[in-house]
Design brief:
With 144 residues, the chain is α+β, with helices and mostly antiparallel strands. It has a single domain, classed as Gcn5-related N-acetyltransferase (GNAT) (Aminopeptidase). It is built from four helices and six strands. A hairpin with a 2-residue loop joins strand 1 and strand 2. It binds coenzyme A.
Length: 144
């Protein structure tokens, strides 16, 4: 069992407590606003979060204003997915707080590789050491 991890900055708290997540909000947002999970069912979103290490960003009033999830074996690799900050809270560094907190998680250290996919946020992740795949000929994928 991985202990719950929390970090607070400027009254915003990042927590990995799955019980705090507002899955209705996450599902509604991802399925209607994201370019990668459009139309995804509530069941699929909930299952994906249930089997990932979830990170929520909580405003001072306790409301969920951002999130991400990490798929990992806690030893060799981690994949960062579903990174989101509500439009009302963008442009104030919360996604950088989130990605920094994720990379600082004590059970996600010394991994061989972090991976993620992004259409246009390379400039965000680049600030944390992510680069485009150096040797794409060594990477494969199988898409449905
Ligand atoms: C991308 C997103 C998470 C950024 O959240 P945010 O809290 O507004 O971002 P921050 O204030 O922490 O700043 C992000 C930094 O990354 C940069 N950046 C690079 N690509 C970006 C992008 N596509 N969107 C937003 N910022 C981006 C910003 O310019 C900013 O740089 P700065 O350090 O010079 O200020 C947010 O806009 C969002 O949820 N968008 C919709 C979902 C999405 O695209 N998620 C990422 C999928 S991979």
């Amino acid at each position: 069992m991985i202990p719950i991890f929390e970090l607070t900055r400027d009254d915003f708290t990042i927590s990995t407590d799955p019980a705090r997540l507002d899955l209705d909000l996450i599902h509604r947002t991802l399925s209607t606003e994201s370019y990668w999970a459009e139309g995804r069912s509530f069941d699929k979103v909930a299952r994906a979060f249930a089997h990932s290490l979830p990170f929520g960003i909580y405003a001072p009033d306790g409301m969920l204003v951002g999130w991400a999830r990490v798929v990992t074996d806690y030893a060799t690799f981690a994949n960062l997915s579903d990174v989101w900050v509500l439009a009302s809270h963008r442009g104030r560094g919360l996604s950088k707080f989130l990605v920094g907190a994720i990379l600082a998680h004590p059970d996600l250290q010394d991994l061989r590789r972090w991976s993620l996919f992004t259409r246009d946020a390379h400039g965000l992740y680049g600030q944390f050491g992510f680069t485009v795949i150096a040797e794409p000929e060594k990477a494969m994928e199988r898409r449905s």
